[in-house]
Structures are given as C-alpha cells and as structure tokens.
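Example 286, ligand adenosine-5'-triphosphate.
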Amino acid sequence: MKTITIDHKNDLHLIASCPAVAALGFFDGVHLGHQKVIQTAKKLADKKGLKTAVISFFPHPKEIIGKTGERVHYLLPPAEKAKKFSRLGVDYFYLIRFTPEFARLEPKEFVWKYLVPLQIKHAVAGYDFTYGRKGKGSLDTMEEDSGYSITVTKVENVERNDEKISSTLIRNKIQLGLMEELPDYLGEFYETKGKMIRTDGKDELILDRYYMIPPKGCYDVAIGNGKEWFDGRVLVTEQKKIYWLGPPIPSVWNIFRVKVKWISRNIHFIPEIEEKQTKNLVSVHG
Ligand SMILES: Cc1cc2nc3c(=O)[nH]c(=O)nc-3n(C[C@H](O)[C@H](O)[C@H](O)COP(=O)(O)O)c2cc1C
Ligand SMILES: Nc1ncnc2c1ncn2[C@@H]1O[C@H](COP(=O)(O)OP(=O)(O)OP(=O)(O)O)[C@@H](O)[C@H]1O
C-alpha cells in the first residue's frame, strides 16, 4: 500500500495514482463499521478492475473547526491506521492535511480539486459521511457535484446492541475502562504501542502519541515484543502513568519498544494498594 500525504501545496495531477474506488472518512480506530466500508470499496474495486483507495484527514476536523481548545482523544496514530488499511487490501491511502483553509472548501470544490484529480471513479461511505464547508456535502450530493463522473455506494450502519458502532462510542468505553467490551466493536482487543522505561526502580510504560489511556485502575494486558506475547498486569494512576505490575518479564525479552493489548479491567486489584506497592518495587525483570 502506498501512503500519500497531501496538503494544499501538492499538485494532485502529478501524484502517480490509478483510477480507484475510494472509501471516505476519518476512520479513527478502524472499527468494524469502518472495516465494512473499506471491504465494500475493495469488493467494488475488484469487480470494476480498479484500485482501492482510502481518503482520510489529519488532524481530526473537530480540532480545526471545533470550539477553541477542543481536544480529540485519538484511538490510533495515522501510521497504525495505515497498517490496518493495508491489511484490508487498500492500494492507496491519501491522507489530507485538514487545515482551516481546506475546511472552507465548498463540497463541489473538494470533489474537483481532490477526488477528480486523484482519479476516484466511485466513492463508498456510511450514511453519515459529510464533506465540504460546514459538512454540507454528502453521498446524496456527490454524483451531481462531480458532474456524474463519480458514482457512489452507501454502506448500511454496522450495529452492536442496537447501536451504531462509532469511534465516539469506543472512546466512551475506554474512558469508562471497559476494555473487555472493545473486541465487539474493533474486532480485536485495543492495541497500543509505546516504550517500557525504568524510572525510580519501577517499569513505566509510556504510550506513543495518539492513543487513549483508560482511567485509573488495574488492567490485565498482554505485552508484545513483535515475536511473542506475555501476559501481565498494569496499574494506571490518576495522572495517567502506566506501571507494569508483573509477573517478572523474562530478561531475554527486548522490552524497550512494546505493544500492549488491553484485555480487561482487573477488579480484584485495588489501585490504591497497588500504587503503594509500586513505590516499593525494585525490579520486575526476571
Ligand atoms: C473539504 C472539506 C471541508 C470540510 N469542512 C467542514 C466544516 O466546515 N465543518 C465541519 O464540521 N466539518 C467539515 N468537514 C468535515 C466533514 O464534515 C467530515 O467530518 C469529514 O469529511 C470526515 O467524515 P466522517 O466524519 O464521516 O468520517 C469538511 C470535510 C471536507 C472534506
Ligand atoms: N457503524 C458504521 N457502519 C457503517 N459505516 C460506518 C460506521 N461508522 C462509520 N461509518 C462510515 O465510515 C467512514 C468513517 O466514519 P467516521 O470516521 O466518521 O466514523 P465514526 O465511527 O462515526 O466516528 P465519530 O464517532 O468520530 O463520528 C464514514 O464513511 C462513515 O459514514
């Protein structure tokens, strides 16, 4: 898969792309609803003999046009989103820099300045996808906006428990520490990346940017070093610091860079007691 970052300086006619079916949207977390949209685009592309593209944005539109200072709690950094797209069989990931200037484009301007030069022949999105200034464009307006050069497919909502799966719903679950419920929405456990560092005799996990950390509590997790997974427990403190609680990690493990799969909140461990104990931890390495 080719990732192409686009800002207003790019001349899109010079980008080496092929005619494609594009899935459109922000796709934070690449949850099961997003996967359905991308799989639909892929199937249609295969049928039409075209490439599959995802057109997305960064940062999140809310950070640019929302109330000043509004912070979006991202589920995944763009590079991890890209890996998930690649696994779904996407050929081109066009990542457009969302700027105030870009947000002001009228729906038609977006279609003619971006979709047409990128050779998008067919667009796929969910019912609630919008584009252009004040989100005035939708799949219902895209065919006309493009002078009927782009056809569209609207994907039915993917639901769980009578509710539309959404990035917002997943963010809310994480904020409540309901990590064990996430596979129902993501199709797998929530996975984050970071580094494990030793500070004051304790092993602290520092997540990379653009991931969410659940609230204060003890969690069962699995950490991965790229080859294998190791089960253990972490403590998340009020200040969102994450400490490894054990069991001791085999010393042969290179654990500087780690993946962390958040499995469930462990209600048998009380954060206050664990926090006191971490103060006495000397080493968790075997
Ligand atoms: C060219 C363009 C301009 C946009 N301008 C606005 C805007 O003025 N206000 C707004 O709330 N959203 C704006 N958006 C964001 C869209 O409404 C929408 O959130 C975005 O395309 C992602 O779709 P999704 O939320 O369905 O994933 C714009 C999007 C595009 C592509
Ligand atoms: N549950 C779903 N079923 C089908 N399509 C979906 C679903 N959720 C989102 N989509 C579609 O996937 C694309 C990306 O959507 P978007 O990033 O807005 O997801 P979202 O989960 O609704 O996010 P948020 O909660 O931040 O609004 C859009 O085309 C959107 O319509």
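Summary: Residues 282-286 have pLDDT under 50 and may be disordered.
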